[in-house]
Amino acid sequence: RFDATNFLAGQERIYEELLTAISVRCCVRIRYESLHEQRQIQTKLHPYRLLFHQHSWYIIGRSSLHREVRTFNVSRIRKIQLLDDPLRMPKNFRIESHLRNAWRLNPEPGPDRHVTILFSPKVARNVDEVNWHQTQQTRTLDDGSLEFKVTVSGLQEISWWILGYADEAEVIEPLELREIIRERAERLAAVYKKPE
Question: Which of 29, 62, 146, 157 has its CB 3.0 to 4.6 Å from that of 119, i.e. a possible disulfide?
């Protein structure tokens, strides 16, 4: 049963249709509000797995539009239709292998990246109290700051998390991630320099 605090509020039927599709092993056609594409898209989906993560439900499966396995937030599915087409999932598909070391649910192509972040004493304890990722390693330094190391499959997802700590976090490595954070911080500063 769902309530107003659940991100599925209003999406119960879509969630149930996805469960049905997985159960009877059939494809679905979905209309989806894509943040990545910045428009509404339509795709035929082979739904592999429903996952609850960070307060939302996600469906992971092969998208005919993208011709690869993708992650879709159930709350952004606007329309769903069960199809007669049988669900085809590779025999060797494992959700763990697909996600690799994604920071959340969207692994990026290419090799995993080693990330080191230095958190100020102000937020060090808050960061250290949470198990953010299966690969994380932390070390409290003499001045009370926290060295946070993690290995991730892509830099985009983790960059948004780091930005949430503003100037209390500094990326030490890799340089590419430092540049991502620097560019976004400059764009943010430009927003606040505009006259009211």
Answer: 146
CA-closest candidate to residue 146, choices 134, 132, 159: 132
CA-CA-CA-CA torsion for 27, 29, 34, 39, nearest 10 degrees? 160
CA separation for the pair 133, 72 (Å, rounded): 21
Residue type at 27? C
Helix (H, G, I), strand (E, B) or coil at 153: coil
Q: Please count the other Cβ atoms lying within 10 Å of the Cβ belonging to residue 176.
A: 11
pLDDT digits (tens, 9 = 90+) for 122-147: 999 999 999 999 999 999 999 999 99
Residues contacting residue 103 through CB under 8 Å, at least 6 positions apart: 133, 150, 152, 153, 154, 157, 158, 161
Task: Indicate yes or no: pTM above 0.90.
Answer: no
Find the DSSP H helices in the chain: 12-24, 95-99, 121-128, 156-163, 175-193
